[in-house]
C-alpha cells in the first residue's frame, strides 16, 4: 500500500530555516531583555543619586567613625623633669528628664561642688530649640579629685540622672614654679602666655579622623577603611630651665621683696657661654592650674615686657669699648671733670685714680669722660653691637625691644646721660645678654628657652 507524504505537525519547513513565528518570538525576547536591563540601570541610578532613607540608615549602621586625638605635648626642664602635661579628669553632666526633684538636686550639687544653687537650677531647666527639656546639660567641667570623689560617694538614688565623662585637662605638677615661663592652657585648649603660647602649634593636637565599615555587631573592620586623616601635633618640648635653679631664684626673689618691701620683682639666670636661660622668674606669681583665680595682668612676664633705665650697670658698654679700641688701659689715670658743663656727681668722690678703680667705684664722671673719647657715632654703634634696642629671642612672646633712640634724636646732654644708663630703656634679657659678652670673652649669644 503506497505511503502518503507526511506533513510536520508544527508546520515548520523541513529544510530547518526560521519562520516568521521564530523571528517574532526572538524580537519579543530581545526587547524583554533590553527593557529589563534599562529598568535595572534606572533603579541603580536612583538608588545612588536619591537613595531611600531606609537604605541610608541601613548604610550608617555599618559605618563606624572615630576621632583620633593624642594628648597635648609635655613640657620638661633641662634634666627631663616634668613641668606640664595633659591628664584626663571627670566632667559632670546631667539628664534633667531623669531627675525627679530638680530643687533638691540643685541644692545638693551646689553644696558639693561649690556652685551657686540658682545657676545649677537654671541649667537643669534649659530647653532645646523645640521647647523640650534638654537631654544633657553640663553641670561642672574639669572636676578636682576631691570633687570627683564626692560625687562617687553619693547614694545611687541621688546620682540618678548624673553622669561623668573624661576630658583632657592641663596639669602643672610644680604649681607656681616657672609659671611666667611656661604659661597656661585655656579651656578651649589653646596655649596662653609663655612657652605654651609661643610653641602652641607644636604642643597642641589637631585631631584626625577614621571612618571604617563595621559588621552587624558594630565591630570595626580594619580592612575596610573608608577615610583616614592622621592627627597632628602633640610634640613634647624640653626647656633650658633647671627646676632646682628656678626654685632657688624664686625663693631669693621672695626674700628680697620682703626685705625691701617691694610690690614686685624679677630675676634671670643665664649660661653666658650658650645663652641658655637656667631660670627666669617674676613676682608675684600665679598657679597655672587655677589661672582664672588671679587678674589677667598677673600673667604678664615683666622680665620680657617691662623696660627700665639700667643705670650704672650700663657702664660696661663704655668701659669695654674704650679698652677694645685701645684708647685707655686698666692703669690709665682719669682726672675728674665734666666735659659737658653740667653738674655730674659721684657717690664716692675720687681724685686722679686708675681706670680699674674708677670702674670699681662706678664713677659717673669717669664714664662720661671715657664716652667722650669714643664720640657719639662710635658710642652708639657699641650700644647696638651689644644688642640694645632689638629683641633677644624668638622663644619669647610679646618681648619688648627697649628704647634706644637713633643718633639723630639725641640732645646736647645725651652723651652725659647715656653712658651712665640714662635716656635709654632696656629689658632684663638684653642686660643678661650684655653681661654674657663680658663673661664669655666677647661673644654675643642670644638668650633662649627651648632646647
Task: Write a structural description.
The protein is 34% helix and 18% strand. It has helices at residues 20-49, 53-60, 102-113, 117-124, 145-152, 179-182, 194-198, 200-203, 243-260, 302-305, 315-324, 355-360, 364-385, 414-417, 428-439; strands spanning 63-68, 75-76, 82-94, 137-140, 162-171, 184-185, 191-192, 205-206, 208-214, 220-229, 232-233, 237-238, 265-270, 277-283, 333-334, 353-354. The strands form six sheets. Strands 2, 3, 4, 5 and 12 form a five-stranded mixed beta sheet that branches. Strands 1-9-10 form a three-stranded antiparallel beta sheet, with no helix packed on it. It has a two-stranded antiparallel sheet with strand order 6-7. β2 and β3 form a beta hairpin. The N and C termini lie far apart (123 Å). The model has no long low-confidence stretch (mean pLDDT 87).
Total DSSP helices:
15
Strand content: 15-25%
| Shape type | elongated
Rg estimate, integer Å: 40 Å
**N/C terminus separation:** 123 Å
Secondary structure class reads: alpha+beta
Biggest sheet details: 5 strands, mixed
Mean pLDDT: 87
Count of DSSP strands: 16
Which percent bin holds the helix content?
Answer: 25-40%
Ranges where pLDDT stays below 50 over 5 or more residues in a row are none
In short:
This protein is an alpha+beta fold. The protein has helices spanning 20-49, 53-60, 102-113, 117-124, 145-152, 179-182, 194-198, 200-203, 243-260, 302-305, 315-324, 355-360, 364-385, 414-417, 428-439, and strands at residues 63-68, 75-76, 82-94, 137-140, 162-171, 184-185, 191-192, 205-206, 208-214, 220-229, 232-233, 237-238, 265-270, 277-283, 333-334, 353-354. The strands form six sheets. Strands 2, 3, 4, 5 and 12 form a five-stranded mixed beta sheet that branches.
Amino acid at each position: 500500500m503506497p505511503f502518503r507524504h507526511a506533513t510536520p505537525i508544527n508546520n515548520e519547513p523541513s529544510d530547518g530555516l526560521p519562520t516568521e513565528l521564530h523571528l517574532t518570538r526572538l524580537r519579543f525576547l530581545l526587547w524583554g531583555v533590553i527593557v529589563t536591563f534599562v529598568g535595572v540601570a534606572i533603579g541603580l541610578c536612583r538608588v545612588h543619586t536619591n537613595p531611600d532613607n531606609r537604605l541610608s540608615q541601613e548604610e550608617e549602621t555599618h559605618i563606624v567613625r572615630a576621632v583620633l586625638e593624642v594628648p597635648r605635648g609635655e613640657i620638661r626642664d633641662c634634666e627631663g623633669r616634668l613641668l606640664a602635661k595633659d591628664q584626663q579628669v571627670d566632667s559632670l553632666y546631667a539628664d534633667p528628664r531623669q531627675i525627679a526633684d530638680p530643687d533638691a538636686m540643685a541644692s545638693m550639687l551646689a553644696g558639693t561642688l561649690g556652685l551657686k544653687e540658682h545657676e545649677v537650677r537654671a541649667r537643669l531647666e534649659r530647653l532645646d530649640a523645640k521647647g523640650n527639656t534638654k537631654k544633657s546639660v553640663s553641670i561642672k567641667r574639669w572636676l578636682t579629685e576631691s570633687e570627683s570623689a564626692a560625687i562617687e560617694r553619693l547614694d545611687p538614688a541621688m546620682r540618678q540622672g548624673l553622669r561623668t565623662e573624661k576630658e583632657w585637662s592641663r596639669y602643672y605638677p610644680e604649681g607656681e614654679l616657672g609659671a611666667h615661663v611656661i604659661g597656661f592652657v585655656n579651656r578651649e585648649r589653646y596655649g596662653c602666655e609663655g612657652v605654651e603660647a609661643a610653641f602652641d602649634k607644636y604642643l597642641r593636637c589637631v585631631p584626625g579622623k577614621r571612618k571604617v565599615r563595621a559588621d552587624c555587631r558594630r565591630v570595626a573592620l580594619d580592612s575596610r577603611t573608608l577615610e583616614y586623616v592622621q592627627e597632628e601635633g602633640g610634640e613634647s618640648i624640653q626647656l633650658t630651665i633647671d627646676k632646682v635653679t628656678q626654685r632657688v631664684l624664686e625663693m631669693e626673689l621672695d626674700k628680697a621683696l620682703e626685705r625691701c618691701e617691694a610690690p614686685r620683682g624679677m630675676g634671670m639666670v643665664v649660661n653666658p657661654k650658650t645663652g641658655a636661660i637656667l631660670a627666669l622668674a617674676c613676682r608675684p606669681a600665679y598657679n597655672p592650674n587655677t589661672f582664672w583665680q588671679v587678674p589677667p595682668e598677673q600673667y604678664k612676664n615683666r622680665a620680657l615686657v617691662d623696660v627700665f633705665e639700667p643705670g650704672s650697670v650700663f657702664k660696661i658698654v663704655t668701659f669695654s669699648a674704650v679698652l677694645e679700641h685701645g684708647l685707655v688701659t686698666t692703669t690709665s689715670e682719669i682726672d675728674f671733670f665734666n666735659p659737658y658743663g653740667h653738674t655730674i656727681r659721684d657717690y664716692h668722690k675720687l681724685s686722679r685714680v686708675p681706670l680699674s678703680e674708677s670702674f670699681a667705684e662706678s664713677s659717673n664722671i669717669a664714664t662720661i669722660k671715657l664716652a667722650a673719647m669714643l664720640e657719639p657715632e662710635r658710642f652708639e654703634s657699641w650700644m647696638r653691637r651689644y644688642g640694645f634696642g632689638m629683641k633677644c629671642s624668638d622663644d619669647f612672646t610679646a618681648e619688648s625691644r627697649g628704647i634706644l633712640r637713633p643718633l639723630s634724636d639725641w640732645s646736647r646732654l645725651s652723651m652725659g646721660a647715656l653712658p651712665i644708663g640714662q635716656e635709654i630703656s632696656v629689658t632684663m634679657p638684653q642686660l643678661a645678654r650684655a653681661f654674657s659678652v663680658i663673661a664669655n670673652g666677647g661673644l654675643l649669644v642670644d638668650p633662649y628657652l627651648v632646647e
